[in-house]
Amino acid sequence: MMSKKQLAIKLSKLKSNPKPKLKLEQYEIPSELAADILHEAYMQGDIENKTIADFGCGIGRLGIGAALLGAKKVICIDIDKNLLEIAKQNAKSLEIKNIEFIQKDVADFNRKVDTVIQNPPFGIQSEKLDRLFLKKAIECAKKIYSLHKGPEARKFLENFIENNNGKIQKILKFKFQIPYTFKFHRKPKIDIDVDLYVIKRC
After folding, report:
1. Cα angle value 22/27/32 (rounded, 5°)
2. How far is it, in rounded angstroms, from Cα 195 to Cα 202?
3. What is the DSSP code string of 148-184?
4. Measuring CA to CA, which residue among 188, 190, 186, 187 is closest to residue 178?
5. To which H or E segment does residue 78 belong?
6. Can you state the percent helix, strand and coil of the chain, rounding each to 5?
7. pLDDT tens digit string along 80-97?
8. In the prediction, which pLDDT does 71 show?
9. What is the pLDDT of residue 125?
């Protein structure tokens, strides 16, 4: 198995999004955080030889990471055509073949997979978008690893997951570093508290 450090280094070298869109909350997941999440899913037996979906894949960091850890097949879905092109280039640079890219609204995706690993929008610019991703993930997968802003949303999300046929197995706390991205940002970078929800469909 590739070590978590080795995975983070590979993911850090992927091409980034040169023009992130605020409305879609296109904040790239840091490579170290992506490696932490993927390592957790791998250790739980939810990546190797599994079919993985990455909803709102962006540049493909989570999906490509899953492929590097031995996923049988990876499906990357994003509504942004330009981002998908970057994700395709990133996969090609690592000679990853067992990965499919789909330009589609996540709400319209209806295939079944083993595991969803996702960094959905936090639902700040587009209210309820985070819930749409979470609901769809529970519909499509047996296991879900979903990153959300915390801890203020924790109680609401716990109830939402339970009401949508999901059972939370654990919540892991992380820091998500956001570099200066949009004009309204005041600092070179900030760290925000995030929760990784590990969910099993009931």
Report:
1. 175
2. 21
3. EE-STTHHHHHHHHHHTTEEEEEEEEEEEEEES-STT
4. 190
5. strand 73-78
6. 35, 30, 40
7. 999 999 999 999 999 999
8. 98
9. 53
pLDDT at 166: 98
Distance in angstroms (rounded) separating the CA atoms of residues 86 and 10: 16
C-alpha 135: how far from chain center: 14
What pLDDT, in 10s, does the model give residues 27-46? 789 999 999 999 999 999 99
What structural domains and CATH numbers belong to the chain? Answer: 22-201 (3.40.50.150)
Amino acid at 186: R
Tell which wins on pLDDT, 190 or 18.
Answer: 190
Angle at 188 between CA 183 and CA 189, to 5 degrees: 105
What is the DSSP track for 95-110? T--SEEEEES-GGG--
Q: Is the pTM of this model over 0.85?
A: yes
